[in-house]
Amino acid sequence: MTKADLAGLRRPNDPPLLILTSLAGGSKHGYALSKDIEAFAGIVLSPGALYGAITRLEERGLIEALEGDARRRPYRLTREGSDALAGALRELRRVTDVATSRLAVAGVLA
Asked: Which are the contacts of 72, defined by CB distance < 8 A and separation ≥ 6?
């Protein structure tokens, strides 16, 4: 996994990261993704942000569309998507650990 593979997956409020996180819990269509993201992250993605990110993730092979009905097209995480999500989470964890440590030394965290 290269840094380029993780581009766009580093901010906790980033639509691709939120979508991959949601799909890690199982396949979902767009509306279900939106509601799940709102529930676990408190973030409401506009339809443009949601479907734009879905398109980019699908083009990169990180998610794939499943057979759906006329109204709903579910998506699922691919192996590459799982790997990208795990890598992004490792990077976020590293940053979080450093920040937490520095705040503790500064006396901001108890």
From this structure: 29, 30, 31
Please give the Cα distance from 84 to 43 (Å, whole number).
Answer: 21
Question: What predicted TM-score, i.e. pTM, was given to this entire model?
Answer: 0.83
User: Whole-angstrom Cα distance, residue 79 to residue 50?
Assistant: 21
Q: What is the pLDDT of residue 37?
A: 97
Q: With respect to residue 41, please indicate whether it lies within any of the assigned structural domains.
A: yes
For residue 39, what is the domain's CATH number?
1.10.10.10
Structure tokens, 59: 């083009």
Cβ atoms 19, 57 nearer than 8 A: yes
